[in-house]
Amino acid sequence: MNYKNQINDYLNGELDENDKRDFIKYLNSNLDFKNLVEDIKFNDNLLKKTPCIETDSDFIISLNSRIDSYDSKSPIAFLQGLFNISKDRVNFNQIAGVMSLALIILFTTFKISNYSSANNATLDNINNQLESSIAVNDADSLGNMNSGSAILLLGNDK
Amino acid sequence: MNNKITDEELIKKFQNGDRSSYNELVFRYKDRILNFIFRFTYDRTAAEDLTQDTFLKLYLKKDSYREISKFSTWLYTIASNLAKTELRKIKRRKTYSISDLSNSDMEDKIFTDHHGDNNKIDKNENHLLNISIQELDPDFRIIIILREIQELSYENISRILKLPLGTVKSRINRGKLKLREILISKGVNRK
């Protein structure tokens, strides 16, 4: 049996009756071991007597200023400022509401921009067709066309 | 009748947006966490900074606390992780001997002894004890501090360090045997 492994349990009174009896028997038969146990008991006392230190007087002020500095840089703080939501009242529903509003605005902007691009494309197409038609009509009106050549007549009633 | 609100109730209120509950938790634990980190690093400035970091993390990560564990266990876990990381940085940064750490500001800032005036430890003995603790392997050191100085239960230490109960107990025993050797080598022994 390695009694060294039981020293802490012995000092804390955590050995069961049988183990305790064997431990004490060994302790009383071995002076070196007895000294070892006494040393550890002494050191335990020393550890328990170590003085406490205290935080600096400005600890909480300094901590709160770090927190405020973090809060002011966060995106949530930006949204809170934008929608005038107090820090104490902010909750998930409010954040979700703000995010939904932002998404709706983004989606609407996207749709409007898509609609105007599509309209521009249609107008360009109509303009191209008109220009081709005018060009063929102009060529026809010149009256010096080669009869053998194949001509595609677009927008020409003749 | 004890009407004192529990830590778990306070963190719950803080999770619901009550900042004053956060301040109360800081007030309750600031000195305990400072002492724990100070004994582990034996660097007053680093300990003060890390204590602030611990509470800043508590503020930022408040929603990750679940009531399956005690609040103090959760807080000590944050503090011990930060302290272990810092210790690695200190080791890389500092090349001077541990005996050079007897800086006066550290000793001068020792104000009170929560065990009572009659039980005060000699200043030099305290310093030797602290530097002896620093010579322990960090795995033993952290357990000795949590158990013998912070007086936490084996179960709490086991949860904080995520170690089996048997490992915690055996490390405490081995740590104490090692600490005895170091203290004897520095001349600290029973008179």
Which terms would index this structure?
heterodimer, A: 158 residues, mainly alpha, 6 helices, 70% helix, disordered C terminus, B: 191 residues, 9 helices, 69% helix, 2% strand, globular
Fraction of residues of chain A in helices?
over 70%
Mean pLDDT over the residues of chain A:
77
- Total count of strands of chain A: 1
Largest sheet of chain A: none
Could you characterize what this model shows?
The complex is a heterodimer of chains A (158) and B (191). Chain A is an all-alpha fold. Helices cover 70% and strands 1% of the residues of chain A. Chain A contains 6 helices and 1 strand. Chain A has helices at residues 7-11, 17-29, 31-48, 59-73, 75-83, 92-142; one strand at 52-53. In chain A, helix 2 (17-29) packs across helix 3 (31-48). Chain B has 9 helices and 1 strand. In chain B, helix 2 (19-41) packs antiparallel against helix 3 (44-60). Chain B is mainly α. Mean pLDDT of chain B is 86; it is low at 96-105 and 107-117. The A-B interface holds A 4-9, 36, 38-40, 42-44, 46-56, 59-60, 62-63, 66-67, 70, 87-91 and B 17-19, 23, 26-27, 30-31, 34-35, 38-39, 44, 48, 51-52, 55-56, 59-60, 109-115, 119-121, 125-126, 129-130, 144, 148-149, 151, 169-170, 172-173, 176-177, 179-180, 183-184, 188-190.
Topology (elements, then pairings):
The complex is a heterodimer of chains A (158) and B (191).
Chain A: H1 7-11, H2 17-29, H3 31-48, E1 52-53, H4 59-73, H5 75-83, H6 92-142
Helix pairs in contact in A: 2-3
Chain B: H1 7-15, H2 19-41, H3 44-60, H4 71-93, H5 104-108, E1 110-112, H6 123-135, H7 138-149, H8 154-161, H9 165-185
Helix pairs in contact in B: 1-2, 2-3, 2-4, 3-4, 4-8, 7-9, 8-9
What's a concise summary of this model?
The complex is a heterodimer of chains A (158) and B (191). With 158 residues, chain A is mainly alpha-helical.
